[in-house]
Amino acid sequence: MICENCGAEMRFKQDGHSISWICDNCGEAVASTCFEPYETDLTVYHILLSSPFKTNTNMLKLVSEIAGCNYIEAKKMIEKAPVEIFSGKAIDIMEIKEKLEAASIDFKIEPEFPY
User: Fold this and answer.
1) How many domains does the chain have?
2) Gap between the Cα atoms of 107 and 65, Å rounded
3) How much is the average pLDDT of 1-11?
4) CA-CA distance, 77 to 70, in Å (whole number)?
5) CA-CA distance, 87 to 46, in Å (whole number)?
């Protein structure tokens, strides 16, 4: 990018969600922010276990952590599936989705999760 003020080449800088072009020659700067669509999505999504499944200790621990309950309650939830284990904004759903996929736990998200 060329500086409109002095015509010099501008340097790109990114720090988290902030992006900027800075002219080292005259100090002129252009700044903005950049967010992934899921980071600004305010829809409340629901994660449901799709169907009962044979569980192991790691799966039980994960469901317990996500649902905010003890292992006994988590096991009952797994046996009662389909059942909701979490609801929240897209940014939280994204993190939980990745954990459930990594653990090969069958789940669904309602409404449809586009990310």
Assistant:
1) 2
2) 15
3) 96
4) 11
5) 4
On average, the pLDDT of the chain sits at: 97
Are residues 48 and 29 both part of a single domain?
A: no
φ, ψ (nearest 5 deg) of residue 94? -60, -45
Mutual angle of helices 90-102 and 57-67, in 10-degree steps: 170
pLDDT tens-digit series, residues 32-83? 999 999 999 999 999 999 999 999 999 999 999 999 999 999 999 999 999 9
Predicted structure pTM score: 0.74
Whether 60 and 97 share a structural domain? yes
- Measured in whole angstroms, how far is the alpha carbon of residue 83 from the centre of its chain? 21
CA 21 to chain centre: 28
Q: For residues 115 and 55, give the distance between their C-alpha atoms in angstroms, rounded to a whole number.
A: 27
Q: How many Å separate Cα 37 from the centre of its chain?
A: 10
Q: Is residue 115 part of a domain?
A: no
Give the pLDDT of residue 13.
97
Site of tokens 């309602």? 110
Boundaries of domain holding 19: 1-34
